[in-house]
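This is your field. Please look over both lines of this record.
***
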Amino acid sequence: MQAVVLAAGKGTRLRPLTEDKPKALVEVDGKPLVEDVFDNLREIGVTEFVVVVGYQKERIIERYGDEYEGVPITYAHQREQLGLAHAILQAEPHVDHDFVLMLGDNIFRGNLGDVINRQREERADAAFLVEEVPYEEASRYGVCDTNEYGEIVEVVEKPDDPPSNLVMTGFYTFTPAIFHACHLVQPSDRGEYELPDAIDLLVQSGRTIDAIRMDGWRIDVGYPADREKAEERLREAAPPVTER
């Protein structure tokens, strides 16, 4: 299976950590964010990475070259930061079947493999890893509404009045139908092509999208404080060192 990894961001909210590097190379507990993503994807059986790069892309390309731990890498270039749906379209020429999409700035520890298995078993058009957050925080995310079967029936980007407290986490599986939906998306009020808008088009066209609840944890590393929180969680989860 191929995985598209979105790693084109500047990480302006992470400054000063991103003053001399792209967001994807910010280290958390000694490992770059994108490298943690690569390791997670390798563990669930991904056999090819398509990495969307943009800001200081040469730093990422020089570091990883054309493979990571034996997994080949193809680079797609997002020359302007115009939203996640726009970023996904840059990978379209390199993807020819179902694929995983993972944001390059999240630290995940959990049931990522369940998302792939659900799409394969149910023959869904997409499957997303979702998590519950406090209602007062839901408006910061892409919010999902589901039916009695656990299928997503609506996705709203950062709504003032969230329909639920179930939010997208940044890990998805898609069929190539998502590319057609991304082509149809119109710019949002902030001038970006939003992924939730593309997903909503899939839903409206009758596509089946399954929501898989997270069993574990994840941290979106958007600010320096998030990096500190992620490092604490990783150290708590690390096996104890035994003395010889």
The chain has two domains: 1-107, 126-168+176-218. The mean pLDDT is 88. The radius of gyration is 17 Å. Residues 3 and 99 are 6 Å apart (CA to CA).
